[in-house]
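anyone seen this seq b4? input:
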Amino acid sequence: MNNCIIVTGGAGFIGSNFVNSWLKLGLGKVVNLDKLTYAGNLANLVDVEHHPEYVFVHGDIADQDLLAELLTEHQPNAVVNFAAESHVDRSIHGPEDFIQTNVVGTFHLLQAVRAYWSNLTTEHKQSFRFLHVSTDEVYGSLGKADAAFTETQPYAPNSPYSASKAASDHLVRAYHHTYGLPTLTTNCSNNYGPYHFPEKLIPLVIHNALAGKPLPIYGNGQQIRDWLYVEDHCAAIRTVLAAGRVGEVYNVGGWNEKPNIEVVKTLCRILDAKSPRNDGKPYADQIAFVEDRPGHDQRYAIDATKIANELGWKPKETFESGIEKTVNWYLENQDWVNNVSSGEYLNWVQTHYSERGEELA
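predicted toks r here
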């Protein structure tokens, strides 16, 4: 059996961490298909770009001809779908991209994968998996006293982003129940860690703090999220891919519920110790409360009991250990942060590939 997987969106935050760890663990060949929209960054993958088991393809999951070509050429045993527009604020200001990528793109990907899977040998059909990576935001918002989201929680998305991800989840479910496609879905809580695009809370706070800029906090900062270290999430995906029951959904969480203001103050304390301000003042002085965004969900919480009981996965990192590793990474990789923040990484991609005599389509 060909030990190959196709990863879509593998140049993004979670996808690139997954590709790096998969190759580091020697688990087989990875074909990374990524459109390289603003958050896709090949600089996340410099450690593996010359790896003999790694192939990068610049392309769109909505391009069914390209998908068919890649599936036929590489004969993967699994497709792992990370490709998504994922920022709530961006979805509020420009929802169409989210519908096109998260809904239409997932539909075209499913169509291509179903056609490929239908023609496999019986043995290969039985071992093949399509794993769809989704979010806890499809479940809506919780009150402070509500039980955490389980896999049977009714969907109640509240933003264009979460609505588009909910639609993609429903399509994946339908392709399993209608066509028999062997699908798996994971719904994760807020990820953090290396290579996180600095529009999201944790990398934005680190970047702004070091730059002497305000640390913007929506509303009163009491919005609660469950935080999951990205390497733990990657381990959970590998576990589900290897042992998950076909057609099932697995919630993946860190068991770390924190209000946003507490996360920011924790980051400030760590930075005070590791990279203090020149004037000796605390970074918390830079906290600035700003007007809340429309329809801001107040609490997400994941009950990850099912994946623990069925598959034996639990996160290795506490929030305290994971956040320290994250701050250390950003302090040690300021060139990456600066290139992303300035947009220079887009130029880097074109220059880097032209220097190698290659073209990005």
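The chain is about 45% helix and 15% strand. Confidence is low (pLDDT under 50) at residues 352-361. kinda curious what u guys think
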